[in-house]
């Protein structure tokens, strides 16, 4: 390096001068020269310590990831840096996900990062993400866990730019946030089943808990906004674990969790196949949608109830991750995850006219994080005594989903 060779040439001359003049030099000369030498070395080999942090160049790009590396095969490793934000630095965290505010005393769950086997997953970079989605509209389509995912992204991006809260419906299910400096819109489109669905009611107009789904129709809550969307993250799942009769128009195909006479039994993973096949077919054939629409399937996020279900005293009190040898790779969640991915792969084999599809495969990753849920620390005054082992604390392991999301979108560009 030129600067290095110039420095060493200069230092040799300095040493010869010191040796020849040592005897007649001032007693203050040697200390002065030593100090000068130290600062010369420091300034040559280090960035100036007097430069303001605000002047440092924050990268607007992420390191390249090996396209052959499976981001979703790996393990959780300790990370002393922890989250990029805190439960108090992000003002948009909903109370039900602010686990520390509601009394969670352990912090160990915050100090882990996902490490893929064979490559590195870059840390989330809010500046680079906003640069990448400038001028775009992104919608999280799904249930309350999809909302949970969006809220994590909102906290991460708020570190770079404060968004405007521009829309909230009466039930606070559908939200729209706008980042004016980047002309980026972030929204949620709440839906139970993705396809059109309705709960049956009794003679008193009280819900019976039995739902009818029609694969021939999409839920208008998200489908009507799809033509204006650039990036959609599709992920509904948890409402499917209840009695559901599945129809395709006037044809009844069968029922999940039903013991009705003369009714074909459908397993949950088969039900997911039917629904997601219809959803991806609708997206791929959407004539009014943008030609370069990106659709990301986020696979099912597992719950971690132990010693009961949500309404029978089940809880999730663990404080550290599982290893791969501690999770059930044959679980219902893994079967459903496979069903979801198969339907996406079926669409991508056809002619979908420029639209792009990708998978955010979080199921196995999150099976290893029984420590990341609110449990009893969710402050729900109407459901005291019940634990939340479905959603995820903010900050928490769900933040890794946005590291995945950033990597996946970059690969599609």
TrEMBL record:
<feature type="domain" description="Trichome birefringence-like N-terminal">
    <location>
        <begin position="68"/>
        <end position="120"/>
    </location>
</feature>
<dbReference type="GO" id="GO:0016413">
    <property type="term" value="F:O-acetyltransferase activity"/>
</dbReference>
<protein>
    <recommendedName>
        <fullName>Trichome birefringence-like N-terminal domain-containing protein</fullName>
    </recommendedName>
</protein>
<feature type="transmembrane region" description="Helical">
    <location>
        <begin position="28"/>
        <end position="45"/>
    </location>
</feature>
<comment type="similarity">
    <text>Belongs to the PC-esterase family. TBL subfamily.</text>
</comment>
<keyword id="KW-0472">Membrane</keyword>
<dbReference type="Pfam" id="PF14416">
    <property type="entry name" value="PMR5N"/>
</dbReference>
<dbReference type="GO" id="GO:0016020">
    <property type="term" value="C:membrane"/>
</dbReference>
<feature type="domain" description="Trichome birefringence-like C-terminal">
    <location>
        <begin position="121"/>
        <end position="407"/>
    </location>
</feature>
<dbReference type="Pfam" id="PF13839">
    <property type="entry name" value="PC-Esterase"/>
</dbReference>
<keyword id="KW-1133">Transmembrane helix</keyword>
<dbReference type="InterPro" id="IPR025846">
    <property type="entry name" value="TBL_N"/>
</dbReference>
<dbReference type="InterPro" id="IPR029962">
    <property type="entry name" value="TBL"/>
</dbReference>
<dbReference type="InterPro" id="IPR026057">
    <property type="entry name" value="TBL_C"/>
</dbReference>
<dbReference type="GO" id="GO:0005794">
    <property type="term" value="C:Golgi apparatus"/>
</dbReference>
<keyword id="KW-0735">Signal-anchor</keyword>
<keyword id="KW-0812">Transmembrane</keyword>
């Amino acid at each position: 390096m030129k600067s290095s060779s110039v420095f060493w040439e200069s230092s040799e001359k300095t040493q010869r001068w010191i040796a020849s003049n040592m005897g007649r030099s001032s007693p203050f000369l040697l200390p002065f020269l030593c100090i000068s030498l130290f600062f010369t070395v420091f300034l040559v080999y280090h960035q100036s310590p007097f430069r303001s942090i605000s002047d440092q160049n924050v990268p607007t790009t992420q390191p390249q990831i090996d396209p052959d590396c499976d981001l979703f095969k790996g393990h959780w490793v300790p990370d002393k840096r922890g989250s990029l934000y805190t439960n108090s630095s992000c003002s948009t965290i909903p109370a039900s996900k602010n686990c520390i505010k509601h009394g969670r005393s352990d912090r160990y769950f915050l100090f882990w990062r996902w490490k893929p086997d064979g490559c590195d997953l870059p840390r989330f970079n809010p500046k680079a993400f906003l640069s990448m989605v400038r001028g775009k509209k992104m919608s999280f389509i799904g249930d309350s866990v999809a909302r949970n995912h969006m809220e994590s992204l909102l906290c991460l991006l708020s570190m770079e730019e404060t968004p405007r809260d521009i829309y909230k419906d009466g039930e606070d299910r559908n939200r729209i946030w706008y980042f004016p400096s980047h002309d980026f819109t972030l929204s949620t489109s709440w839906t139970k089943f993705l396809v059109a669905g309705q709960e049956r009611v009794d003679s008193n107009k009280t819900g019976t808990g039995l739902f009818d789904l029609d694969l021939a129709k999409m839920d208008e809550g998200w489908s009507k906004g799809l033509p204006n969307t650039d990036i959609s993250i599709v992920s509904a799942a948890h409402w499917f674990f209840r009695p559901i009769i599945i129809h395709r128009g006037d044809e009844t195909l069968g029922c999940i969790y039903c013991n009705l006479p003369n009714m074909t039994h459908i397993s949950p993973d088969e039900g997911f196949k039917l629904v997601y096949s219809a959803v991806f077919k609708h997206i791929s054939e959407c004539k009014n949608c943008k030609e370069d629409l990106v659709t990301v399937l986020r696979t099912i996020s597992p719950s971690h109830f132990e010693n009961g279900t949500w309404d029978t005293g089940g809880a999730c009190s663990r404080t550290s991750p599982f290893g791969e040898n501690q999770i059930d790779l044959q679980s219902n969640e893994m079967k459903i995850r496979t069903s979801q991915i198969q339907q996406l792969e079926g669409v991508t084999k056809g002619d979908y006219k420029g639209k792009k599809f990708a998978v955010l495969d979080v199921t196995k990753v999150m099976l290893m994080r029984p420590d990341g849920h609110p449990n009893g620390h969710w402050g729900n005054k109407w459901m005291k005594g019940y634990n939340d082992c479905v959603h995820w604390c903010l900050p928490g392991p769900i933040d890794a989903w946005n590291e995945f999301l950033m990597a996946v979108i970059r690969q599609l560009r």
